[in-house]
Amino acid sequence: MLTSRVFARGLGALIFAAAVPTALALDGPRPAASPVIATSPTEPFKSVRDAFKIGIRDYNAGDKVGAVRALEYAATQGHTMALWKLGRMYAEGDGVMHDDLKAFEYFSKIADQYADESPTSANARFVSSAFVALGGYFLEGIAGSYVKRDVNRAVDMFYYAASYYGDPDAQYGLARLYLEGIGVEKDSRQAARWLHLSAEKGHHAAQALLGNLLILGDGVPRQGARGLMWLTLAREAADPEKDAWIIELHDKAFAAASESDRQAALAYMQQYLSKNR
């Protein structure tokens, strides 16, 4: 894998290639390309920034139609946050009909135009988030579209966002690939490394997986107390409805832990919270 900005500059071509069907019959009809961005609305805006501000204002006020109109105007001018917000709206069916292909294309435009964005820039978190979203789409593919499952591209998307931008979601996603041996050779130590980077940023799912890995000593040195510490932190942040698996892992580990490990885990957790307060 490449880790430099040379890799970043190559991602534009990578995304573009993924967005063009390659198995078309030479003498057959070519499918119409799905537009990445809708046509500009007729309503004038003072500036791209003004359009984005109006879009977010309308979104927060519950006017999703007005929000999409303004955001699309800003997106046609390459506004990063407008592209990202529209991608999220289509990915989640938030105020628009759920459409993963449209979401993919909005995120692709960000990756194509802003792959070399500085990690310290205001737009960095939106760019890295777009790469994470693309990684997820390449990992599964989009049914009924030209976006096919491609685990190698998924690895590239996660790796770039995880290493260049330090994105905790990307680090978690990459760790999962190493744990399961998808697109990479199965490697618990590499998984633990990426999980630790993500866990340190407060990613509670990464904290849970890292804690469980350390408690089991599966491919890594067993560290029961430190593993219980990570699981406890994850348990505190877990949503009872969405993260039942985290609660189950914690409760099982806590019940099996010795009193000395419980006390050590508490001390580790106090150190962690003090450092990150």
UniProtKB/TrEMBL annotation:
Keywords assigned by UniProt, alphabetized: Signal
Matches recorded under Pfam families: Sel1
Signal peptide: 1-25
Keyword Signal: yes
GO annotation, biological process: ERAD pathway
Superkingdom of origin: Bacteria
Keyword Signal among UniProt keywords: yes
SMART domains the UniProt entry points to: SEL1
Listed SUPFAM superfamilies: HCP-like
The protein's name in its UniProt record: Exopolysaccharide biosynthesis protein
Organism: Chelatococcus composti
The organism's taxonomic lineage, starting at the top: Bacteria, Pseudomonadati, Pseudomonadota, Alphaproteobacteria, Hyphomicrobiales
